[in-house]
Amino acid sequence: MLRRHKSIKLYIIAFTVxxxxxxxxxxxxxxxxxxxxxxxxxxxxxxxxxxxxxLDNSTCDSLKMLVxxxxxxxxxxxxxxxxxxxxxxxxxxxxxERYTGRKDAQTISHITPIGTYIVLGTQGYNLDIISHEMxxxxxxxxxxxxxxxxxxxxxFNEGIALQVDYREYMMDSQVExxxxxxxxxxxxxxxxxxxHSSSWDxxxxxxxxxxxxxxxxxxxxYNELKNF
Length: 228
Fold this sequence. Notes:
Blueprint: H1 2-28, H2 30-35, E1 43-46, E2 49-51, H3 57-78, E3 85-89, H4 93-100, E4 107-112, E5 115-120, H5 127-143, H6 145-150, H7 154-161, H8 173-178, H9 183-187, H10 192-195, H11 200-221
Parallel strand pairs: 2-3, 3-5
Antiparallel strand pairs: 1-2, 4-5
């Protein structure tokens, strides 16, 4: 009987240790940290918009203005109010690594079942970049997590985000006028890994192709955006 009690006690201890390890591991995930950003020392700039405690008042005001402009740009494009996103503005390298989960990232959007967490470094303090990342959040808001993860190809997600992103190097009006749909090419960049290749030159081609493809699609289906 005593041996049985010891076995049960050891089982309970082992189970408890496993649960603790799982909980600790979960809280090490960058998107889990993002979900608890409200409990950090980050500044609340706007509703669901947070900034590094390293930011000065002037930069905070500028970032709030950029977010509001990005909301209006997306609202005009999507015909609905962007809602389900959290934006986190980082300053230091350690902040970026903590919330992106990567050592070399300046911009990342964590797509989760409970919303989109947009993490931006100082290079992302830009209306086009904020608008682009917010567009990913709106698409999630419309189609839902399962559809976005399993039914929406990456080229579509990126291409439609580029419709609210006016960075010059992402545009080529002459090419766009003569662009022809290439289903075979698109099928090769339908998932995240194949779209974001190791070569930036190749990835840029993927972005441009997606932008042109979605421009053509929107010419015929723009009114379907809010019913996506």
